[in-house]
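Sanity check. The docking grid for zinc ion depends on where the pocket ends up, so I'm generating a full predicted complex first rather than guessing from homology. Inputs follow.
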Amino acid sequence: MFAAACHFFLRITGWPLKTAGIFCLCFFLAPACADAARVADSPAGELKRFLQTLDNLNARCGWTDVSAAGIAWEHHRTTRNRRPLIFARFGGGAGNCILFLGGVHGDERPTVYLMLKLARYLHEHPEVVKDHCIVIAPLVNPDGYFAAPPTRVNAAGVDLNRNFPTRDWRRDAHRQWRTKGRKNPRYYPGATAGSEPETLFQTALIKRFEPQKILSVHSPLNFFDYDGPSSDLDSFEQWMETISREANHPLKKFGYYPGSLGNYAGHERSIFMLTLELSTSDPKQGPGYFRQFLPAFLKFIQLPVAGVPPFTRLVKHGK
Ligand SMILES: [Zn+2]
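Predicted complex below; grid placement will be based on this.
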C-alpha cells in the first residue's frame, strides 16, 4: 500500500525518487505520529509515563520493592511542571476516611518510600482495610522530588507547608518568614495563601474525602507531633503517648505555623492530625522506617473516631 502510493506520487508529480519518498513518508506517518502524541498526552498516558519515571528514580534510590504499577492511582490536577498529583483510595468504607500524605517536601525522600510501600501493603492486604476508607497521596511535591538536587520547595520556590489558606496567613505568614525564618527561601510561604497547585490538591482531598484523621510524613526532625480538636486533644495525646512508646519514637508538641497543614486541618478544622518526622532524609533508611512505623500506621487506621469535624472525638474502649 505504502509502496504503491509512493509509486503513484512519483508518476503524477514527476518528482525525484528521494523527494517523493520523503513526502510520502510524512503524509502517511503524520497521522500515526499525531495519534501516538495524543495517547502520550492523554491523562492515562501522562500518568503511565509519570509512574515509570517515578519507578526509575526510586530504583536509583535503591528501592526496588515499591513499584507504583498495579495501584489504581487517580489524578485530576498537575503541578506547574505538568507532573500528575496522584492519590489512591483503599477499602470499602464510605465515611470515616483517613488521609496519608508523603513527599510534601521534595528532599525528604524516605517519606515517599513509606507511602508507596503502605499503598502496596494495603493493596496486598485488603482485609486490613475492608471497613475503612483510606486515601494515600504518596508524592505531594513531585517537582521538588524530581529536581536535581531535590528541593524542599515546589517549582515556584514555595514551601507547601506554609501555603495553606489559614486564617492567620495574611497577617502572619510573611511577617514570621521575615523575622523568625530570616527570609530562608526553604520556608517561603508564597505570594498569596493557597497559590500553589500542590496546596490546592491537598485542600481538595480534604474537601472531597472529609477525613477525620490525617497522617503527614516528613523528615528529619525525629518526632511525632499532633494537632486536633481542642475538645478532645487530651485523649489523642494519651493515645499518642502509647504509640510513641511502641514505635520507640519521641513525642513532641511542635506547634503549627501560618499556612501549615497542622494549622489548617488540625487547629482550624478539628481533624485528628498526626505528623511523623523521621530521623533522617536518607533514602537507604526507607525499608527500616517501614518496619518501624507500619504498626503505628495500622493502629492509626483502626483508631475509632466519632462525630464529624469540628465535633469529632476518639471513641474510648468499653464506652
Ligand atoms: Zn517536611
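Relevant for the grid: The chain has one domain: 64-314.
Also worth noting: The two ends are 78 Å apart (CA to CA).
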